[in-house]
Amino acid sequence: MEAGVPSARSRALAVLRVRSRALAVALLPAAAAVVLVAARATGRLAGEPWAAVTLVVCAVAALVLLLGGIFAAVVLRAGPAVTPTVPLSEAAAPDLYRLVRDLADRMDVPPPSAIALTPDCDSWLEDRTHAAHRRGGIAGGPQSAPGAAPVLVIGSPFLWWMRVAELRAVLAPVVAGTGPSAHPDIADARGFVRGLDAAVDVGGRRGLGWIAAPARLLLRLCRTDAAEMERGVAAAASDRAQGVDYGLRIVAQEQVGLAYAGWDRLLTRVALPAWRMGRWPAHLDAGVVSALTELSRRDRLAEGFTSRLGERPACDLLEQPGVIDEATSLLAARLFHGGPAEAGPEWSPVEWAAYPEEVVYRKWRAEAARLHAALDALAGPEGRPTGPGGPHGCAGPTASAGSASPAGAGSAAPASVAPAAAGAAGSPAPSGPSGAAGPATIEAADAAPHAVDGFAGPTLERVLGCLTNASGEGALGEALAGRLSADLAREERTADTAAGAGKARGADAVPLFPLQPPRSGRDLLADHVTAMVCCAAVDSAGAAPGMDWLDGPVLLVGGDRRSDLAPRVLCLVEDGDPEPLREWLSALGVRTEKPVRLV
């Protein structure tokens, strides 16, 4: 018997004792009622008070039994949470199934009933035999049969980054967990804890506090024993897996840490900007290989890791790696960003080769348009933004009195600014710098007369002038940051409404796990100013959008990445000091007075 099994079994019995005591408490009034009725029937409790006492106790017992029966039914029938995964049939990965079954045979444990993938750097066993899962159509096949072995859930980045031998070593202790999981006491205790957790969720969602409160109490009473039971199960699984690739497992665990670091950077720096643009990278798992290779190249501690790439990758165990990659990439977008369940006109996949033009370019143009729309919204009657600090000397989209603009004072925004709202709202835009609408828009912007102070229209000079004069508490910078936050919040509410309509049409909902906390107004302002600078560099200095596997959107000048822009933008946004940015723009040859294309 492995180390940890006796401890796990004893803890499981402790959990079951909590269940037995709860049942005893629920039956206590009924037992008292039976005693009183029997005593009354045999004449041992004669007299008027005992008749009333017996009636009250019987009523209380009936009420407690009714409520206890409803509570027990909720605990038994409420479906425990099931992790959203991509199911992997044996036909789609016969070699992977053979590898897992071979591991189970070597460790003399039941093989997992099925395999599924998750867009995360983790692996575990998940029980999907609850009857509620079958009723709801969540589970199907052999994994949902009563008494079936748990499902093996594998992190999809492992399949693309790890070699076959490394994946085998990492999965060995996980697969070994099917042995202790088959123990009747441990399985019963786990089912009881999962049922209580599901009852808390049902009571909270439906406003049934009398169900949620006792479920929480029982969870607190068995929390320590349940945690120690799982530790015992893990210790038993690790002990059973000692003889399977133990030396290689130490090396493979290093790859787990590296995969987690690269996966996190790929999601937060590369995938997230695309998701916010209504696009989802269709091959995230293939991208993690490039990201981790780049991380290995930059990190001297990981110099030897790329030498493994000549060995057989674990994704070769799949019949159609590209199809599986696309499915897990869509699930990642749903889990971490809340995207729709299916691709559509406003939620389309993007290939890595098209990422700079389809995502980076559109992101910069949309943010530049949103920035100028915010400046326009803050403009006073004469086109001058009027934030908490009063006028700041930067003209809006309309010309002030005496301007040579043909539209006249107080007229609407120029045609070059008109598409800004559409771009900010995520409407289709040209796919790259060579879009069909580009040359005509630039020529129109170049031909449009400027306001007298030289800042009118969508120019970088207008932004520099506004933020230069906006330093200090309560100045335009704060008003502009607040306006951008409000605009983005409104766009997200519109997207949430559309997502809700999709769910009403039958799309299954998944829990949302945001990758980042909400951005502050200052961070949003810095991002939008950076986008405006990049647009100006593309339009007037021959720069181009690019992508870095670890940092996401980048500006390329002469084919080289420029990483020195961010600190200069922060000097402007946080300190109102434009000189470092102006020097950078001058060295690059960017014309700040030239109108920038916003679509």
Question: What can be said about this structure in brief?
Answer:
By secondary structure, the protein is α+β, with helices and mostly antiparallel strands. The longest helix has 37 residues, at 5-41.
Written description of the protein model:
There is one protein chain. The protein is an alpha+beta fold and 599 residues long. 57% of the residues lie in helices and 7% in strands. It is built from 20 helices and 11 strands. It is globular and about 105 Å long.
| Strand residue percentage | 5-15%
Number of helices: 20
Question: Structural class given helices, strands, pairing?
Answer: alpha+beta
User: If you compute it from the alpha carbons, what radius of gyration comes out, rounded to the nearest whole angstrom?
Assistant: 32 Å
> Averaged pLDDT, please?
81
- Biggest β-sheet strands, sense, barrel: 4 strands, mixed
Shape, per Cα inertia axes: globular
Can you give the helix content as a percent range?
A: 55-70%
Low-confidence residue ranges: 386-393, 395-455, 501-507
E-strand count = 11
For the termini, the CA-CA separation is 68 Å
Sheet with most strands: strand arrangement:
1-2-4-3
